[in-house]
Amino acid sequence: MSADARSGRIQAAVIVACGGRGSRFRDGAEHTGISDATPEKQFLEIAGKPVLSHTLDVIENHPRVSKIILVLPLEALDRGKRLVSGQWPPSGPYTKVKAIIAGGENRQESVAKGLAELEQTGWDGPVLVHDGVRPCASARVYDRVIDGVLSNGNAIAAIPLRDTIKKADGNRRVSETLSREGLWLIQTPQGFWARELIEAYDEGKKRGLQVTDDASLLEALGRAVYLVDGDPINIKLTYKEDMAIIEAILMRVLY
């Protein structure tokens, strides 16, 4: 590793991906109080501000990040612009957000659009991809991912599996208990050199690959992928029940 890398002078860009519509979050709406009139989950208020604001706060204040590309649903672009510009107190302004763009039909398409936007700027350094509704990622996790990119070419945040895992059939009858040895729960941010990730997305599109995280594209193309320590509190807002957990975490961090 070069002296520049060790000193932290190599900066990273971050694609914040929240271009989806939260279908799992809205499942069973009649039982959860979530309806079509409910804002997208990245704009729901937790611990005094929108979920997305908590996510952006950490990135905006991180000294090793210089550029953010924010990917949102098309219908949420105006709300995103108000939030980023500071017109949504107590959020923003977020000066590192250099572009706010509309995502695609799924996460893979949304990240691809973010990468295309980043490529237009000529960016060739590390790029991290982070879920916009994963607001509890700490600056330490970002540091570990950036350091991992500089050391190994890529790095994804992960935590070792703690619980017993059982495989079941369609009737929920247990067929097998799986070993936890070597199994990890994958989080974001996930970091790569920009060119490597752009090439992986281009090749994945040619092959028609459909994946749920960025590292899976590299794996499918036979590339080595490396893990760094994530954080158990770095959870994603997927279901309504997650809101209380995330609020408890953020309130502890903030107050």
Question: How would you characterize this protein structure?
Answer:
By secondary structure, this protein is an alpha/beta fold. The chain has one domain: Spore Coat Polysaccharide Biosynthesis Protein SpsA, Chain A (Alpha-Beta Complex), CATH 3.90.550.10. The protein has ten helices and eleven strands. It has helices spanning 3-7, 23-26, 29-32, 51-60, 77-85, 107-120, 139-152, 194-207, 214-220, 242-254; strands at residues 12-17, 45-46, 49-50, 65-72, 97-102, 126-131, 154-160, 165-168, 174-178, 184-193, 227-229. The protein has a seven-stranded mixed β-sheet with strand order 5-4-1-6-10-7-11, with helices on both faces. A hairpin with a 5-residue loop joins β8 (165-168) and β9. α8 (194-207) crosses α9. The protein is globular and about 55 Å long. Residues 1-7 and 28-37 have low confidence and may be disordered.
Give the arrangement of secondary structure elements.
Elements: H1 3-7, E1 12-17, H2 23-26, H3 29-32, E2 45-46, E3 49-50, H4 51-60, E4 65-72, H5 77-85, E5 97-102, H6 107-120, E6 126-131, H7 139-152, E7 154-160, E8 165-168, E9 174-178, E10 184-193, H8 194-207, H9 214-220, E11 227-229, H10 242-254
Parallel strand pairs: 1-4, 1-6, 4-5, 7-11
Antiparallel strand pairs: 2-3, 6-10, 7-10, 8-9
Helix pairs in contact: 6-8, 8-9
Based on the model shown, name its key terms.
255 residues; alpha/beta; Spore Coat Polysaccharide Biosynthesis Protein SpsA, Chain A; 7-stranded mixed sheet; two-stranded antiparallel sheet; 10 helices; 37% helix; 23% strand; globular; disordered N terminus
